[in-house]
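In the laboratory, one determines a bound structure by crystallizing the protein with its ligand and collecting diffraction data. In a computational setting the workflow is compressed into a single prediction: the sequence and the ligand go in, and a structural description comes out. We illustrate the idea with nicotinamide-adenine-dinucleotide.
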Amino acid sequence: MAKTKILLVGYGYWGPNLARNLNQNSDVEFTGILEIDKDLHKKISEDYPEIPIFNNIDEIGDDHDAAIVSTPATTHFSIGQNLLEKGLHVLIEKPLATSVDDCEILISIAKEKQLKLMVGHTYLYNASVIKIKEIIESGEIGKLLTVHSERLNLGQIRQDINVMWNLAPHDFSIISYLVGSYPVSVSASGNDFIKEGMHDIVYIHLGFDNNITGFIHNSWLHPLKSRKVIVVGSEGMIVFDDTQVNNQVTVYEKGVDWDKITKSEKGKNSRFEIIDGDYYSPQIETQEPLATEIQAFVNWIQLDKKPISDSKNGLEIVRILEKAQEGLLT
Ligand SMILES: NC(=O)c1ccc[n+]([C@@H]2O[C@H](COP(=O)([O-])OP(=O)(O)OC[C@H]3O[C@@H](n4cnc5c(N)ncnc54)[C@H](O)[C@@H]3O)[C@@H](O)[C@H]2O)c1
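The predicted complex, in structure-token form:
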């Protein structure tokens, strides 16, 4: 099968990771990098001497089948629209766009032009997250009760979007995937300490059917870096620590013995009995999630195999972000 010709748009912090993976993928012909900041062109030509560099979207020519957009979130809609109008399949880094209306326009252009539109919800391609989903579905931790997700650090503080729009697309996509549905209720509160109107700390509550809840804490004002997902089931609990290199996932046989109430001798202070059993870290094959994400995009183009983070998934996550944003404005 012919290689898919892919253009990368944006070579800031995240773009070089995409470039490395595009360059390594044997199903891809890496056909260029579009970067409007000319100061970065020297670095691009040092990293990839053979790859054409474009200054402007009007210069890219027609030698591309697809593009990956890794520019600031507020530019996703206009760049995505432009690329789709040019007839390219598009993978846009998270979030798909910064409003539901904009996502719907992108989706309708892609549909009309029969192009693939995907969003970079990278954690849906993370082997640890996929393993946790398997464990939940196996019934090992009993009934799913809550999923807590936190993404905390000092910085990197963005200027164009708040901490929730920057980080919570990961948390929303992970939690919705693990629960198996999108939330039916969303509420958020937080603070804008650094820049007025631009929240740097948020706490989000998600309500799902079957009384399952999700909790998210995002912060740019935290002394320690934390990237954790904690899953609580009726018969076990799982911790995913993405800051660890090895043993990222730990499964605990911890919980409450719902049927056993221990009566204290005085009769007043009866308590539920706690189960505090064994724990283990499942073996998880490590593959860079970004490599899997790009392969999913290529497989969609070449084999018509729809990925999990299609445009509908992108839209639903932006719908949650928009709803949560209402809470931050009140
Ligand atoms: N999936 C992940 O885990 C992950 C991690 C980090 C960032 N991201 C996403 O990647 C995207 C980029 O983030 P970043 O941290 O690299 O931002 P950044 O600001 O460091 O880099 C963005 C780059 O895009 C360039 N750019 C802006 N407008 C452009 C245009 N019209 N045409 C061409 N280039 C343009 C800028 O000059 C800059 O070099 C964001 O959507 C972010 O949410 C995803």
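Residues 6 and 151 are 31 Å apart (CA to CA). Keep in mind that any predicted model is a hypothesis to be tested, not a measurement.
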